[in-house]
Write a structure and sequence with these properties.
The structure holds 2 protein chains of 2 kinds. By secondary structure, chain A is mainly α. Chain A has 4 helices and 3 strands; from the N terminus they run βββαααα. Chain B is mostly helical. Classes of the chains: A mainly alpha, B mainly alpha.
Amino acid sequence: MTTTTENVETHEGGPDHPTDAKYIRVAIVLGIVTALEVATYFVEMPGALLITLLMVMMVFKFFYVAAWFMHLRFDSPLFTKFFVTGLVLATLVYGVLLTVFEFWTKG
Amino acid sequence: MADVAAVDNGHGTGTGLSNNKLLMWVFLGSECLLFGGLISTYLIYRSRYADGPAPGDIFDIPFTSVSSFILLMSSLTMVLSLSALQRGDIRNNRVWLLATALLGSLFIGGQVYEFTTFLREGLGYTTSPFSSAFFTLTGFHGIHVSLGIVMLVSLLISSFRGTLTKERSETVEIVGLYWHFVDVVWIFIFTVIYLVPSPTS
């Protein structure tokens, strides 16, 4: 049996997943954000503002794909914990590496 | 519900979750460390281009933007193929799997074109620390995409043999997780390597 609400479909014997229409809406949002990212390349703006904007859009896209397409919103929190552990560990380890190599001050 | 699915697939665990899916998530967590290392190395070496071309001189942002959009849309077709199989719609599952493999191949074709263009412009693998770090990072990502295409083609073959059914949709879900991960890594690479202003000579 398959029941459909506005955004989520429930399959018998499986986890709840979004509908195809919701997936398409997610892809449209991702496409728009990508277009905004690319637009920054053609617009003159201060370096700090540009990098902040790009980082915000990148993080949004990263977690939006993970949440909707990789189903982290709907699956067991244990999967999220394993993935986030790797992500946090990588950020910390390589954050230290970049600091040691004075990347933040000398680029 | 998840318990029933796990037991049906013969992968019941103490957590009630599928072993295969859990293993893929642990693998993807470890892949964050691999790509983190490659991206950090690139960032450290991007200003060391010696006598070769500098990153800011050689990157073709409009071209790479199209490649990025193609890979992003392949994530949509991947998730639609899973959704179709979970409904028992074998025909659409095959269509979307094929579309994902084709979009992935198009991305790889773009990367090969980019690499050959860079080579013609004098940027070889050993030209400078920048070039080595760049080719290693993007090359590793390209290998991941290529492996994903092999997995997608294997799924298509299984489907045509009649072994990829609604009951085995978890296989497509696991390949999908890998594919989406490759996509999110590119989201990171595209911004940090291409869009953040790079040094020019």
